[in-house]
Write a structure and sequence with these properties.
The chain has 551 residues and is of the alpha+beta class. The protein is built from 17 helices and 21 strands. The strands form 5 sheets. Strands 2, 5, 6, 7, 8, 9, 10 and 11 form an 8-stranded antiparallel sheet that branches. Strand 6 and strand 7 form a beta hairpin. It starts with 6 loop residues before the first helix and ends in a 5-residue tail after the last strand.
């Protein structure tokens, strides 16, 4: 990272520039300009919309099966199963209402509920959808697919030859303005968090159908933009543009080389018969944040294929002592019932068995299970934990080292007086360590921009990234991957909190360097990327809940 003007230096400079400090915050407008609040729903006027049939309620698939490799029988790709996939991944889950305001909630969490993430699918010819393969944009308000274009069937056949019938591509993009409207320069970070959350919802939605989902490697940012139609100036005009984030391959059942498709066919895959013009989300912009565009351009997908040694992880039995094969809730209840807590009661305790299960869900294992089988790199995010009320464990600072090979590296990087003791009853394959006992409720809230919710939960945490080594090894594009991983971690925490009868909340506002100081991190090799809290929620009784869909 010593090459002045390099893309890596640009993203490092962006990260430093957008840190919050006790005496100053990252640059933003400083107030909410309600006149320019972005429309949360992108539509392509003129694109044919195919409404998806709402899946029947009451599907009895147990939630715990989502995390089992091969835990669900593979379903065929039909209009109905595609509907269930998007229902669990990106759909509305409810409307909330109070006097003077109504807003929607979605299956994929979002910073400030602003939803910069847009979803796409490149699908084969499908009965009830279209007679040719095509590119579709998912419209969550309508629970429908807008057909943006179609593909030459012969090229699609060549592309899909190596994969099982019924395979398709899922894509994500970001509208940075939706987050920048509220958060200013820091918005690029939050858009990447949201991409990670959406990657998590996509992977677990696929798991609910017995499908596999893996990031598609080897594609550059411009290539993804072309495939999703995001490079078409004529279709956007004055409308806010979308930046390409990722493409993922979805296949029925297990398929080992899921990240490989014929490169020649991908290059030849060009759409025809384009339809639809993007809607304008805000009448005008009170401010534009050039630094976001600089970071986005510097970190655009490089087309590099990641090749990492994925050995050395514990087995499922070692992480959980006894593999989890039971639970209280269905996948439908957990996924569609997930909510972000606005405040917590400061008294609810979490049973230690539930805490160990939560931490175990965040670990890749030798068996390979969702959602960690969706990404082709070793974990780069470790947890600095503030335990407040976990029965059977002393309050204090803890660490979950999600890559066991990094334990000594983190031990040397953190404060020299930390204990690094496995807590009593901890499963042998779970790299969880007590660092220091004590009451850290005040510090947890303090470093999370003074938000009491970080101290009122049963526990909270900061996700600490192996930052420098990751960028040196894989370049500036991996800056996005780090945030995607943080969103994946956060998505599992959200769902696990629901399983435990609690609630969780992602915290994007925190004081970066003071967090590092609490854990004794003095170099810039490790950087905090995301905070989270889990605990007993205080429900706002002023709010009414309305159904997500009534058609």
């Amino acid at each position: 990272m010593k090459n002045p003007g390099s893309t890596t230096e640009i993203v490092v400079a962006y990260h430093e520039r957008t840190k919050h400090h006790y005496d100053r915050s990252a640059a933003s407008l400083g107030y909410l300009d309600w006149a320019t609040q972005p429309d949360p729903f992108r539509r392509y006027e003129g694109a044919p919309l195919v409404r998806l049939p709402l899946p029947p309620e009451g599907r009895d698939l147990p939630y715990w099966r989502l995390y089992m490799k091969g835990g669900v029988s593979s379903a065929p790709l039909t209009k109905e199963t595609l509907s269930l996939f998007f229902r669990y991944a990106l759909s509305l889950t409810a409307w909330k209402s109070m006097p003077g305001a109504t807003w929607s909630l979605r299956a994929n969490p979002s910073s400030g509920n602003l939803h910069p993430t847009e979803g796409y699918a490149l699908l084969p010819a499908l009965e009830g959808l279209h007679g040719n393969p095509g590119l579709y944009h998912y419209a969550p308000k309508e629970h429908g697919l807008e057909r943006r274009a179609e593909f030459d069937p012969s090229v699609w056949e060549k592309l899909s030859a190596p994969v099982p019938p019924g395979s398709f591509l899922a894509g994500l993009s970001s509208v940075y303005w939706r987050e920048a409207w509220k958060y200013g320069e820091r918005a690029f970070r939050y858009c990447q968090h949201d991409t990670g959350h959406a990657l998590g919802t996509l992977r677990l939605a696929a798991a609910a159908l017995g499908w596999k989902l893996s990031l598609l490697e080897g594609l550059s940012g411009p290539a993804v933009s072309r495939l999703l139609g995001l490079d078409r100036d004529a279709d956007y005009g004055e409308a806010e543009r979308e930046d390409p984030e990722l493409l993922a391959l979805v296949t029925p059942g297990e398929f080992s080389p899921a990240s490989r498709l014929p490169e020649e066919a991908l290059r030849e895959l060009s759409a025809r018969g384009w339809a639809g013009k993007a809607n304008i989300l805000s009448p005008h912009h009170a401010a534009d944040w050039d630094v976001i565009d600089e970071a986005a351009n510097a970190s655009t997908l490089s087309g590099k294929v990641l090749e990492e040694d994925m050995t050395g992880f514990p087995t499922e039995a070692e992480v959980f002592q006894k593999p989890v094969r039971s639970g209280s809730f269905t996948a439908e209840k957990i996924i569609l019932g997930r909510r972000s807590a606005v405040s917590m009661d400061g008294s609810t305790a979490l049973p230690v068995t539930d805490f160990f299960r939560m931490m175990g869900r965040l670990m890749p294992t030798q068996e390979g299970h969702p959602p960690w089988d969706a990404i082709p790199w070793r974990p780069r995010l470790h947890l600095g934990l503030f335990l407040h009320r976990v029965t059977g464990l002393s309050p204090g600072l803890y660490a979950l080292v999600r890559d066991p090979a990094k334990v000594e590296t983190l031990r040397k990087a953190m404060a020299p007086d930390f204990l690094w003791q496995n807590p009593q009853g901890c499963p042998p394959g779970l790299p969880l360590y007590l660092l220091k006992e004590g009451d850290y409720r005040g510090q947890a809230a303090g470093v999370s921009c003074g938000q009491n919710i970080a101290g009122d939960g049963a526990f909270s945490l900061g996700m600490i990234a192996d930052f420098k080594e990751s960028l040196v090894s894989h370049g500036a594009a991996f800056y996005r991957n780090l945030f995607w991983e943080s969103g994946l971690v956060g998505q599992v925490l959200y769902l696990e909190a629901e399983e435990a009868g609690l609630r969780a909340t992602g915290i994007g506002c925190y004081f970066d360097n003071p967090v590092h100081q609490l854990f004794g991190l003095t170099s810039k090799d490790f950087q905090g990327l995301y905070h989270f809290t889990v605990g007993g929620p205080i429900e706002d009784k002023r709010l009414s809940t309305l159904p997500a869909y009534e058609f």
